[in-house]
Structures are given as structure tokens and as C-alpha cells.
Design a protein that fits this description.
This protein is α+β, with helices and mostly antiparallel strands. The protein has eleven helices and eleven strands. The strands form three sheets. It has a five-stranded mixed sheet. It is elongated, with a radius of gyration of 31 Å.
């Protein structure tokens, strides 16, 4: 009778663990490995793991004196232990066999208190230093991310400032040639100055606001924005014998988008199309009500085209095409800006191209369906 009883007791030894970690922590490789190890079959141990979100349970942080996150707390068998830092997995692997031994000895009224000297890594001073190192590492990573974010913002705002300056210059040239009158010139200059003022405000907010928050979606006639952009870029296509084809149905629905940002995407894509299309070539601009939820915009040219292996890369930051970089500036920041603008509107952007046959850029914009405006 004694033998089987002892076996049953060994098989039913319970280990209660509390893992205090945010969703961000749980996505890391170290935490995934730790959880996979704890979920394995450890024969005589029955491990019960409870996940706790620190932000929703601040009282537990105080109860267990937790300073660094993530942390693993062993509640039972006694005594309570806390594991933190990047070596949590190795610490648990080291202690796991001893937890079963400690529980069996406790059942015989022979409590065992783990000795810090048994493993130097588990001494209070070593754990304290490890916690401090973890906090410093996390703060350093956060600072690096912040600096990289601000660098990207400055680069993009600088690129954005170039667009109104270019269109202003084109408008002045058109005025000198008699293509536009005083009233139209003043209207263009007024709108461009207003845009530069908004961009300067964005620049001031770069240090404290995420770029994705610097947009104001509203009900918008995309066909009107397309017409305005084509007029602003007239200098780039007039006198070059380019064929400009537009396919904009009269019943195209309004979209839910930021007017300034949508104009920015169209300016970037059309400017590239005109820039890379040879004289006598063709540029197409089309809008299509693709589904009940999306309007698809297409801008096609018959320029040099884009190699297949570079068609994904061109939407990344500061990527330019190798076969065109020596001819003209472009594809450095503009397409990454387009991607960010489209994605923040929950749309998608992609390119279909064959070298020597031109390129077609597509992006989608959500249809206006009485969405709530920001702040309402």
C-alpha cells in the first residue's frame, strides 16, 4: 500500500506559477520558449501557469514586490520565488527538479529553503543586478526606436515640403507663359503656402506625436483631387507630346480620406509617372469602384519599368531604383511616404511592372459610408 501511495503523491505534485507579462513581452522569443518549456510534460510535476497583464493588475506588482517585467512568480510549493531577466528559462530549468524534491520533503515535515549560495545566479544581489540590467536594456531599446522614428519623420516632412515648393514653381512658370491668370496663380500660391504652414506644424509635432496621428480623414471627392493634381503638374507634361488618359466615372463614390495626404500620394505617383515617361509616351489615371468598401486608383506609364525583385523594396524608406538613380532623383522617400499614407487609411498599395514596358501603381481608399470624423 505504501509504494502505490508514494507514487500517487509524486504524480500529483502541483507547481503554481504566475507569469506577469504584457502582450508585447509575450511576443518575444524568450517568453515563447519559456512558455513552451512550462507546457511540456514534466512527469511528476503538474504545472499550473497563470498569465497576468501588469497594467490591469497593479496590486499584484506591489504584492510580489515586482520591479522589472516580465516576471515569473512561483507561488507553490513554498517558498515563493521570483524570476526575472533574460535568463528566466535557464533559472526555471535549473530549479524545476528541485521543486518536486522540496514538496516531497515538506510533506515529511522537512522544509527546505533554497540556498542562494547554491547557484550564484540566483543570489539576491545577482538577481537585483540582472533586473537593473534588463531595465537599462529596455530603456536603451526604447530610446533607439524613438530616435529612429524621429529621423524618419524629419526625412518625410522634408520631402513633403518639397512638393508644394515644386508646384509653386510650376505655377509661376505657367503664369509667365500665359497659361494661367492672376486669380488662378494667387489661388495656387495661397493653397501651397497654407500647405507649407501645415507641414511646418507637423514638423514641430514630430518629437511628441506619432506620424499616423497627423491626418484628418473626411468625406472627399477623389475625382476633384485628381483633376487639381493634373492641373498643378501641367508643366511636367505640356509640350512633351504626352498622351494623358483619364478614366474617372461620373458616379464614382466619395471616399473617407485626408485631402492633403491623398493629394500628396497622387502628386508623388503622377510626378514619378511624368518623370520616367519619355516624350511622346502615355500616362493613364483611373478610378474604379472596386467593391462596396473601396475605390481603387491606378496610375500607369510606359517608362523603363521596375524589375520584379525591386517591386516590393521600392516602398521601403530611402530606396531608389538602381537603373534610374543616375538619371534623375526620385523613389528615395516618396514611395515610402505613399505607403504610409495609404496604410494609415487602412488601404493597400502595390505595383505591377515589367522592365521596358512601364509600370502601373495601384492603391485603395475606403469609400465614404458616414464614418465618424476624428474628435466626434
Amino acid at each position: 500500500m505504501g509504494g502505490p501511495t508514494a507514487t500517487n503523491q509524486q504524480a500529483s505534485i502541483g507547481v503554481s506559477l504566475l507569469l506577469v507579462a504584457s502582450q508585447h513581452h509575450l511576443a518575444t522569443r524568450d517568453l515563447r520558449r519559456l512558455m513552451a518549456f512550462l507546457q511540456d510534460d514534466h512527469r511528476e510535476l503538474d504545472i499550473h501557469l497563470q498569465l497576468i497583464e501588469p497594467g490591469q493588475n497593479p496590486e499584484l506588482l506591489e504584492l510580489h514586490k515586482l520591479v522589472a517585467m516580465p516576471a515569473l512568480v512561483k507561488l507553490s510549493p513554498a517558498p515563493r520565488q521570483v524570476f526575472t531577466g533574460i535568463t528566466m528559462l535557464s533559472q526555471v530549468q535549473s530549479w524545476l527538479p528541485r521543486w518536486g524534491q522540496m514538496e516531497r520533503l515538506n510533506s515529511l515535515a522537512m522544509p527546505v529553503i533554497p540556498s542562494p549560495a547554491e547557484d550564484g545566479r540566483d543570489s539576491p544581489r545577482a538577481l537585483e543586478l540582472e533586473d537593473q540590467l534588463l531595465v537599462l536594456r529596455q530603456e536603451n531599446e526604447a530610446l533607439i526606436d524613438r530616435l529612429q522614428f524621429q529621423e524618419r519623420q524629419l526625412r518625410m516632412v522634408a520631402h513633403d515640403l518639397r512638393t508644394p515648393m515644386t508646384t509653386t514653381s510650376l505655377a509661376l512658370q505657367s503664369f509667365k507663359r500665359g497659361h494661367i491668370g492672376n486669380e488662378e496663380l494667387l489661388d495656387i500660391l495661397g493653397r501651397r503656402l497654407h500647405e507649407m504652414e501645415q507641414l511646418s506644424n507637423d514638423l514641430l509635432e514630430v518629437g511628441s506625436t506619432r506620424w499616423e496621428a497627423l491626418f484628418n480623414p473626411q468625406r472627399l471627392s477623389l475625382s476633384q483631387v485628381c483633376a487639381d493634381v493634373l492641373l498643378e503638374l501641367e508643366k511636367m507634361w505640356s509640350g512633351r507630346n504626352l498622351v494623358i488618359q483619364t478614366d474617372i466615372p461620373s458616379d464614382i463614390p466619395d471616399v473617407f480620406a485626408d485631402s492633403r495626404r491623398m493629394r500628396q500620394v497622387l502628386l508623388n505617383l503622377l510626378e514619378n509617372a511624368f518623370k520616367f515617361t519619355p516624350d511622346g509616351g502615355q500616362v493613364k489615371l483611373g478610378l474604379m469602384h472596386r467593391t462596396s468598401q473601396w475605390v481603387q486608383v491606378s496610375i500607369c506609364d510606359n517608362g523603363p519599368g521596375i524589375p520584379v525583385d525591386e517591386q516590393e523594396r521600392i516602398f521601403q524608406d530611402q530606396v531608389r531604383l538602381s537603373q534610374t538613380s543616375w538619371k534623375t532623383a526620385g523613389f528615395g522617400v516618396g514611395l515610402s511616404v505613399c505607403r504610409r499614407v495609404v496604410e494609415v487609411h487602412t488601404g493597400k498599395i502595390w505595383v505591377v511592372s515589367e522592365p521596358g514596358e512601364g509600370s502601373c501603381f495601384y492603391f485603395t481608399v475606403p469609400v465614404w459610408r458616414n464614418q465618424k470624423l476624428p474628435g466626434h
